[in-house]
Amino acid sequence: MFKWANLFSRDEVEKDILSPNGRLRCHFTLTSGRIYYSVYKNDKPIIKPSQLGFLICGEEPLANNFKLIREQKKRHEETIELPWGEDRYIANNYSESAFYLTEKKDPKRIMTLRFRVFDNGVAFRYEIPPQPKFQQISIKDELTEFNIDLNSTAWKIPAYQPDRYEYNYEKTNVFNLQSSVHTPLTLKTPTGYYLAIHEAALYNYGSMTIKLNERQALKSDITPLSDGTKAHVALPFSAPWRLIMLADSAIELTTNRLIYALNDPPTDDFSWVKTLKFIGIWWAMYVGEWTWAPGERHGATTTHAKEYIDAAVRLGVSGLLIEGWNEGWEGDWLENGINNKFTVATSDFDLEEVASYARSKNIELVGHHETVGFIDNYEKQLEAAYNYYAANGVHYIKTGYAGSMMLINGRREFHHSQLGVNHYQKTVELAAKKRIMLDIHEPIKGTGIERTYPNLLSREGARGQEYEGGAITPSHACFLPYTRLLAGGMDYTSGILDLANSVKRMSTTLARQLAYFVTIYSGMQMAADRPFIYEERFPREFGFIRAAPTNFERTLPLAGEIGEYYVVARKDRDSEDWYIGGVTDETGRRIHIGLDFLSTGVYRAEIYADADNAHYRDEQFAINISERHVGRGEALDLYMAPGGGFAVKLTKI
Ligand code: NOJ
């Protein structure tokens, strides 16, 4: 819109930034010293004018007094190749405008606001350069708003809760978001657009949660430190990217990979990083057969470890996780974790012997560090603990941060606060130096930093299958692709086939456990049940788990609705084979899958599908396993029972 004011003054500014295809528009406004943005798709408002800026401790707000010095525009077109993941190639195409701002009055502080407008989302970040008398700042609040229609639907998990991100997703309306929720926060506007508000490249800052403010706009609520501030930073400082992913359908939203586009490429050699499938001395503890702590039923003994290594070889799985191998699990391990020792094994476990046996059998060990959130204790040992594993040829570590808060510098801090974020980062960087790959449980949420640090192969960060046995409903895994998984892969501990176990009963069918290896991507993918279950009871079903890749060339979401169902096809990175997985909530569904994505030629389809009588409650094991030849242009019609799913392997012949 033409404004006379624009001709005469840089104090009142309105600027449009158009996405490469012109359909998405970000509108930047500077009026009466305040900065706002809004977002339009096809000229329909998605985000109404939303305020930007900061409150700084002991200083005037960095928000109310700006004028524009300069706008710098750029177009960027790039295809990024990722070493592992759901898609090998990611588009990084955007129009960028950097607005260089200065305060009109003393102290005339300066700040840059950088916007990137993609065809499938808008991102922006604050960059604060060092300046006289403004070099070290404590952020009291970040004012960023995401002013979306209050009648939009939201799928949320609550923030600041003792179990971190491990809650069931709930469908609600934006006008109900009075208390903070985590991101990615998935939303649907009354006009039918799908959005997820998230952040990318979260470094040295509190993680962003979201809630309504007094003017009924969604606003960032940065996880505070125990001193009440949001972050202490030295300038120059770039805040994490604020990201709004946008799509026309729920299923389209699931392939938004902008978190990776917004992170930097690696600066080191990571060619040593390899995705992994592994079994573990793990589920036996959950079903009460073994214990983490030493004693008669101790799981992590040298003998058990060697037996599991042999089982991994027979099963054709490359890795073995060993939990409960170190000192610190006695008694109430959650309470006592402050004393955990990460270089001292229990007397019945000999790491050197186990590691050398694993090496002789070509099995990668996955080490384990359960910190219980006692960061002071862990950081004191970090270097030695990684060296200990590295010296024994252990290249993978699963870390854990159970406990409702972290203890850092003697104070209770949120996992997702600036100090928590910095701790996780320290582990990722140190691990990279030692050529160790990580799977972080109770993690900081994914913000795409795996692009820069590909050794961060996976995280948990949502309810996983350890919550089965009552706390997981069939809809949970149908929410994840549209919510948590927008933040990257997840170690869901898939493949529990002992479904009717009296201690931990699964709310799934058998076919659905196989489907998870396709519907839930993880760079470190666990086949989580005990090996004898696979070998003795389900050797045929395990064939699918063995084959399922941990690295894909391409991901093609086929159908789904948030919390209801999800069907996805993925092409293996190392072959011409495709894998299809589907999961549904409590409702049974028939799905028609056109196979037009296949290349020409004949494929053998191995199909693991729920039988007509299958049901997650009482007919969990009713499965039909069949084979047929298919080709491009043909289709598969598959049934998913209530709480069920299917898994298909398409091998090119
Ligand atoms: C919680 C983790 O998610 C789980 O996988 C692990 O076994 C326990 N903590 C103990 O470390």
CATH architecture of the domain at 13-261: Distorted Sandwich
CATH topology of the domain at 13-261: Beta-galactosidase, Chain A, domain 5
Supply Rg.
Answer: 25 Å
Q: Can you count the helices? A: 13
Mean pLDDT, to the nearest integer, reads: 97
Largest sheet: 10 strands, antiparallel
Structural class assignment: alpha+beta
Bound molecules: 1-deoxynojirimycin
- Uncertain residue ranges: 1-8
Structural shape: globular
Kindly estimate the percentage of residues that lie in beta strands according to DSSP: 35-45%
**How far apart lie the N and C ends?**
59 Å
According to CATH, what is the class of the domain at 13-261? Mainly Beta
Task: Give the tally of β-strands.
Answer: 40
Into which percent range does the helicity of residues fall? 10-25%
Q: Key features?
A:
653 residues, alpha+beta, Beta-galactosidase, Chain A, domain 5, TIM Barrel, ten-stranded antiparallel beta sheet, eight-stranded antiparallel beta sheet, 13 helices, globular, disordered N terminus, binds 1-deoxynojirimycin
What is this entry, summarized?
This protein has 653 residues and is an alpha+beta fold.
